[in-house]
Amino acid sequence: MPELPEVETVKRTLQELTGGKAIRDVEVNWPKMIKKPDDVQAFNQLVCGQTIHRIGRRGKFLLFHLDDYVLVSHLRMEGKYEMAGAEAPDKHTHVRFYFTDGTELRYKDVRKFGTMHLFEKGRQEQELPLRQLGPEPFEDKQFTGAYLYRRLRKTTRDIKTVLLDQREIAGLGNIYVDEALFQAGIRPDARAQGLSQKRVNLLRRRITETMERAVEKGGSSVRSYVNGNGETGYFQLELNVYGRNGEPCRHCGTPVEKNITAGRGTHYCPGCQRR
C-alpha cells in the first residue's frame, strides 16, 4: 500500500499541483532515500534548476519528468507527497522541494522505506527498478489474456503469488489481487498453471475492471493513504473480500475467510471462490 490506483491518483494530483514549477532547492533529511546518485549533494546539484514538465507512473512508481532527468519515486508502505502549507514540517518530512514561485512540495514517510532514483531522460526504463517490471494492468495493450495465459503456463506457483510478482504484472498489490480473484471466482491458492484459457481471459478482464473502478474512486484508503491534496479514496467502500474477514459475502452470504497465501494476509469467499 499504496498500489497502482492510489499511485495513479497521486500522479494526477501532483500533475495539477507541480506541473510547470521550477526547482530552486532541495533539502534531504534522510539520505538513505536517495538511491541514485548515492550522494545527496550530487542529487541536489542535478535537480536544482530543473522544471517539472509532467508526472508519469510505471506500476507503483511515480515519474517526475524534468528538463534533463526523470526522478523515479517509490512510496512503498507509507510515503506521501503534499504541498506545504503554513505549518512547520513534522519529523516525518524527509525531502523538501522548494520551487522558484515560493511554494514547496514535501515528501513524508513514517517508515522511511520510500526511494528516489534520478536517471538521465530516456534511461529510466533501461535500468532498475523499472527495467524488471511487467506490463500494466491498466491502459496497456500488452496486458492481454494471451499474455497472461502464457505466463501462467510456465509456473507452478499459486495464482496470487504470480499476480503479486511485479515482473509479471506491474502495479498489482494485496488489495486488488484479492478483489480481482473474487470477481473472477478463483481461489487465491489455485495453481496458476491449471487455469483454463477461458478462466484466464475472465481474470484478465476482472483485473482491468477492478483497476479502472479503483482509479475512478481515487483508490482505497484502508491505512494512511491520501492524495497530494490530503484527500482519501473511496474504493474501500466497495471492497468485496479484502479486510472483511468473518463478514457475510455481499453476493452469497457465506462468511469471508482469511488465510496466508504468498506470505500475505489473503481474503476470499469460500462460496464464490470454490476449489
TrEMBL record:
Which InterPro entries does the record associate with it?
DNA_glyclase_Znf_dom_DNA_BS, FPG_cat, FPG_Glyclase, FPG_N, H2TH_FPG, Ribosomal_uS13-like_H2TH, Znf_DNA_glyclase/AP_lyase, Znf_FPG/IleRS
- According to its UniProt record, which cofactors does this protein need? Zn(2+)
Q: What is its EC number?
A: 3.2.2.23, 4.2.99.18
Q: Where is the active site?
A: 2-3, 60, 264
Q: PROSITE patterns in the record, alphabetically?
A: FPG_CAT, ZF_FPG_1, ZF_FPG_2
Report the co-factor binding details. Binds 1 zinc ion per subunit.
Q: Which CDD domains match?
A: EcFpg-like_N (cd08966)
Chain segments annotated as coiled-coil in the UniProt record: none
Query: Is this entry keyworded DNA damage?
Result: yes
Q: Which GO terms describe its molecular function?
A: 8-oxo-7,8-dihydroguanine DNA N-glycosylase activity; class I DNA-(apurinic or apyrimidinic site) endonuclease activity; damaged DNA binding; double-stranded DNA binding; zinc ion binding
Superkingdom is: Bacteria
Positions with a binding annotation for DNA: 92, 111
Catalytic activity field: 2'-deoxyribonucleotide-(2'-deoxyribose 5'-phosphate)-2'-deoxyribonucleotide-DNA = a 3'-end 2'-deoxyribonucleotide-(2,3-dehydro-2,3-deoxyribose 5'-phosphate)-DNA + a 5'-end 5'-phospho-2'-deoxyribonucleoside-DNA + H(+); Hydrolysis of DNA containing ring-opened 7-methylguanine residues, releasing 2,6-diamino-4-hydroxy-5-(N-methyl)formamidopyrimidine
Task: Name the Pfam families for this protein.
Answer: Fapy_DNA_glyco (PF01149), H2TH (PF06831), zf-FPG_IleRS (PF06827)
- FPG-type domain residues: 240-274
Say yes or no: keyword Hydrolase present: yes
Tell me how this protein assembles: Monomer.
User: What is the similarity comment for this entry?
Assistant: Belongs to the FPG family.
Q: What does this protein do?
A: Involved in base excision repair of DNA damaged by oxidation or by mutagenic agents. Acts as DNA glycosylase that recognizes and removes damaged bases. Has a preference for oxidized purines, such as 7,8-dihydro-8-oxoguanine (8-oxoG). Has AP (apurinic/apyrimidinic) lyase activity and introduces nicks in the DNA strand. Cleaves the DNA backbone by beta-delta elimination to generate a single-strand break at the site of the removed base with both 3'- and 5'-phosphates.
Which PANTHER family does this UniProt record tie to the protein? FORMAMIDOPYRIMIDINE-DNA GLYCOSYLASE (PTHR22993:SF9)
Matching entries from HAMAP family are given as: Fapy_DNA_glycosyl
Q: What is this protein called?
A: Formamidopyrimidine-DNA glycosylase
Q: Which organism encodes this protein?
A: Salibacterium qingdaonense
What is the gene called?
A: mutM
